[in-house]
Amino acid sequence: MTKHRCKWCIGDPLYESYHDNEWGVPLHDDRLLFEFLVLETFQAGLSWITILRKRENFRLAFDNFDYHKIAQYTDQKKEELLQNSGIIRNKLKVNSAITNAQNFIKIQEDFGSFDRYIWGFVDGKTIKNAWKSQEEIPATTPISDRMSKDLKKRGFKFVGSTVMYAFMQATGMVNDHTVDCFRYNEV
């Protein structure tokens, strides 16, 4: 029997695996939340499949998304990243990963964890939508608008509302699997 999946992932084994195993699963681990934050910021203006194909390279290049290490990156490390063809070599995005790591740590200090801070925007619970088609799914919501505005106020970069809504989808803050998808009731 064929599994019914969200339309956006069909046809690429990497995309389907990501959809089936990760997308929309509620995440509460700060390191993983930081990984998705970095990946989503690098995705801005690109397709998610481009980022997924480079994900292992990003993990290697960015010390497995250890935000304490990233917050301390030197100019030499930045230059090394900009020469790394395995990742997206965008100076502003590389700089933003470092700035965002520093601000991520500040949020942990202020809230006890990034998880507590970020999930506070949805009162600690996944928002379960009931979309019948991919076309119904919004690119932003009032919550992603508020999240984006607050993160920017705290010094984060590349965290526009569209990026933050994609982050919410990826980390299970919203369940945007379509109702006919086999994952809809599983996550």
Your description of this structure?
The chain is mainly α. The protein has a single domain, classed as Hypothetical protein, domain 2 (Endonuclease III, domain 1, Orthogonal Bundle), CATH 1.10.340. Helix content is 52%, strand content 2%. The chain is built from nine helices and two strands, in the order αααααααβααβ. It has helices spanning 13-21, 30-43, 48-61, 67-70, 75-82, 91-111, 114-119, 142-153, 161-170; strands spanning 127-128, 174-175. The chain has a two-stranded parallel sheet with strand order 1-2. Helix 2 packs across helix 3 (48-61), helix 2 packs antiparallel against helix 6 and helix 2 packs across helix 9 (161-170). The radius of gyration is 16 Å and the shape is globular. The model has no long low-confidence stretch (mean pLDDT 96). Zn(2+) binds at residues 6, 19, 177, 181. Hydrolysis of the deoxyribose N-glycosidic bond to excise 3-methyladenine from the damaged DNA polymer formed by alkylation lesions. It is an enzyme of class 3 (hydrolase). It catalyses: Hydrolysis of alkylated DNA, releasing 3-methyladenine. InterPro entries: Adenine_glyco, DNA-3mA_glycosylase, DNA_glycosylase, Tag.
Descriptive terms for the model:
DNA damage; two-stranded parallel ribbon; mainly alpha; DNA_glycosylase; 9 helices; single chain; Endonuclease III, domain 1; 187 residues
